[in-house]
Amino acid sequence: MRLNLRLVLLVFAVLLGSSLFMSALTYQQFAESIEPAINKKSDAIAKTVESEIVRALGYGIPLDAINGLEEYFDPIVDANPEIYGIRLQRGKSRVDSAEFEEAANQPEAIQKSYPVVYDGKTVAQISLLVDGEYAQKKSLELLLDLLTVIVVSVIIAFELVVFIVGFNISYRIQQIMASIKAFVDQQRIRLIQDSSKDELGFLTRQLNRRMHEISARGNKPIESGSATGLQPVNFIRWPFFLLVFSESLSLSFFPIFVGQFYSPDWGVSREFVVGLPISIFMFIWALSLPVGGVWSDTVGRRRAFIFGSLLTAIGLILTAFTYTLIDLLVWRSITAIGYGIVFITVQGFVTDNTDQSNRNRGMATFVATFFAGSLSGTAIGGILADHISMPIIFLLSAILSLGSALFVARFIAGGGGNIRPKLSLATIKEVCTDRSFLMVTLFSAIPSKIALTGFLYFSAPLFISSLDATKSTGGRVIMLYGLFIICLSSLIAQYADRFKSRLPLILFGGTLGALAIAIPAAMPSLVGLMISIALLGMAHAIAVPSQLTFITETNQTLCARLGLGQVVGIFRLMERVGNILGPIIFGLFISLFGITQAYGWLSFLVGSATLTLAVWVFKSRRRGQP
Question: Is the pTM of this model over 0.85?
């Protein structure tokens, strides 16, 4: 165990050090070259405009008779963000690009003048309004992109190294130790299944040869099967991370992508149309969880994961070639089915390969991997969207999804889990008659998911776009949520057991989440949104893990009778209602009140749900109920 930790830390240190060194060199080179590049570009633009005017003069067209200069200037300004405007001064008259006068009043605008020379005489003057702070802005943007890439690289490397070390070292050593322990303690002979050609493989072959000799001399039977039957949870981390990463690449720009298909002739608001594919995705995903869980139990985790990954890849490929909104809804539904199958299959894999002594740790690994993939994909997707087209990013996502399927096919052993009782309406009704289950689900779990999809995934990209920020900025801002979840979840979990009841954590997290959503209403800026997303991540790190723990602790009899998986499955199914309602509710609020006030109304909704739960807790305790 110490060896594994040392190897991971060594790789982490080498990767981080090299990334920081290369990033520093890249940033220094960029900072030194961007200012001269902007000057050269301004000179080239002025020279191009001059050549067009001189050519018109060469055709015999008088300078005052040259028309359409405004229409010629505007596309040049739009294509070059460092240029605020263009003006042609010809005697006392002048022609300006759109909004030239307004841009000239900005403090960072610098006016550069160039003469128009024809037949040896200066006949006019070209003025360019250049953003004097553009170099600093691009340098800061590059620095933030580099830091984002470093963070994501470390996360990706960590996930990959954990698998490599686990598969090539830890698991094989565990097999050797299990075989030796079985022989020493119980005189049982179990061979080790390992055909590698490295040092551990040599050790394994020598040990198996000795076991065969002992079996032959003592007439002891050789037991079938491996020395250990369980696959470590770390085996599934990397392919699951890869699939979540691939699906999350589009999170930072997906509302913008959907907006391309909107038509005012439909008679509905733009916000409603943008939120519809997200709600449909969440709805189909929710429906696929119980069905996919039963199917995964039947066909085995390996086959279910591969099928779900392939289905996800197909949906992503079709999404890249979307032409209408109806197409998009169908393709996203296919993606949601595959994504849901993988999601519930990985939970089943964790359950199959853990017991009571390490199941909580296994589920914590599942949650951390999910948010690590979501965080990394969102950040990298935002950066990519500024440089390549959105359909190409969907194709890249499909390739990564196929990679996760190939990985599982190569490294994960086959076989199915234990057959669990099938989900039925009677079971759902029985679970929902428990008041504590129902109250926590309705007034904490569902509002948390409404905040997640409505606030974070739906409104945040729209709000960032309204501030004229880049898509990479959107990815960096949204990744704050996952970063706080990853950093705080395990830390908070260590202290959560000290509470006799999980309800204080649930109530505190709900209150903090409501306050977090209200911040953009009071501070409608990028900084305000960043603070809000960070606090929402903190709130969910406190409340969300406690929700499931509270339900299982207060319904032990029900869990024993129906099975823990049944109760957890019903809870997961019901909380997905919040995922579906989030974009719809926030889209409605935006259409009625505007995006700034919509944050206030969503905060009121989440806060009211938390207050209702608090009142129920208070009344229950006054009545002496547990």
Answer: no
